Amino acid sequence: GLRNAQTPEGLREGWAAVQAAWATTVGTTPPELVDAHVEDEWSLAETLRHLVLATDAWLRGAVLGIEQPFHEIGQIFTGAAGMGFDTSIFRTEAPAYAEILAVRAEHQAMVTDFLASATPQLLAEERQDPWGGSWTPTVGDCLRVILEEEWAHLRYIRRDLALLA
Fold first, then answer.
1. Which has the closest alpha carbon to 157: 42, 1, 3, 31?
2. Predicted pLDDT at 77
């Protein structure tokens, strides 16, 4: 399906589909639920910050090779510090929701713009795992990780918002 797209066209289609789904979820979530969360799960605001982080890791870091790719509002995963990751680059206080939406929109545009000119040759190029693992993903693999993160977190937040509503 769209998640495992191998071609530039398929990736663009998958990205457009998941972004449309996110637009609906973000647009229909009442303001009072933006920071609400179920047990140990992330809120909508935190989830959007994590997707900023995923774009930074897999597009800005792995694909584009930016040395310090992370935006300071990114939401790092639990246990990252234990893996030796420098979490001091992230802000300790939660940013305002309007700022989260603005940074998220910039990051969505980065992916859209990158995909607009992606070729099969570029998708086949190898990169390094941004988390320092032994996997050498292709550019296409990196983009599929972003898509998988987007779909997975959309499922989680829709489940949680349904419980909170």
1. 42
2. 85
Please report, as a single letter, which amino acid is at residue 109.
A
**Per-residue DSSP letters for 136-147?**
--BHHHHHHHHH
CA–CA separation, 125 vs 23, rounded Å?
Answer: 31
Q: Residue 126, SS3?
A: strand
For residue 27, give both structure tokens.
Answer: 């647009």
Q: How does pLDDT run across 34-52, given as a tens digit for each residue?
A: 999 999 999 999 999 999 9
Residues near 117 by beta carbon (within 8 Å), at least 6 away in sequence: none
CB distance 63 to 115 below 8 Å:
no
Q: Which two tokens stand for residue 63?
A: 């694909």
- Residue 140 burial (CB count, 10 A): 22
Residue 105: predicted pLDDT: 98
Residues in the chain: 165
Q: CA separation (Å) from 21 to 7, 79, 140?
A: 21, 29, 22
Token pair recorded at residue 59: 């597009």
pLDDT at 3 > cutoff 70: no
Tokens of 13: 């289609």
CA distances from 96 to 35, 37, 57, 113 (A): 10, 17, 22, 26
Check pLDDT > 90 for residue 12: yes
